[in-house]
Amino acid sequence: MYELSGFNVTRSNNRFKLGDSAVARLNKFTNMVEVPAVANLIPTEMFRFRSVD
């Protein structure tokens, strides 16, 4: 599991649209740190899943 910080969340560029959902953009300030395997800190009911059609 990794902790990710220092990134931007934006919409896809209309000229190069990947989809309707938001995109995480990594930059030079993005930091990714491996964290030890612990119990799930985010309750499962907080996740949102969508079907892919």
SSE map:
Blueprint (H helix, E strand, L loop, with lengths): L1 E4 L2 E3 L12 E3 L5 E4 L19
Antiparallel strand pairs: 1-4, 2-3
Summarize the structure.
With 53 residues, the protein is mainly β.
In the sheet with the most strands, the strands line up as: 1-4
Rg from Cα: 15 Å
Strand segment count: 4
Q: Span from first to last CA?
A: 29 Å
User: Number of helical runs?
Assistant: 0
On the 0-100 scale, what is the average pLDDT?
Answer: 78
For the largest beta-sheet, the strand count, sense and barrel status come to: 2 strands, antiparallel
- The helicity comes to under 10%
Give the uncertain stretches in residue-range form: none
Output the structural class. Answer: mainly beta
The shape is: flat
Integer tally of domains:
1
Q: Element order, helices and strands?
A: EEEE
Strand percentage lies at 25-35%
Provide a descriptive summary of the structure in words:
With 53 residues, the protein is mainly beta. The protein contains no helices and four strands. The chain has one domain (2-46). It has a two-stranded antiparallel sheet with strand order 1-4. The chain has a two-stranded antiparallel ribbon with strand order 2-3. The chain is flat. It starts with a strand and ends in a 19-residue tail after the last strand. The model has no long low-confidence stretch (mean pLDDT 78).
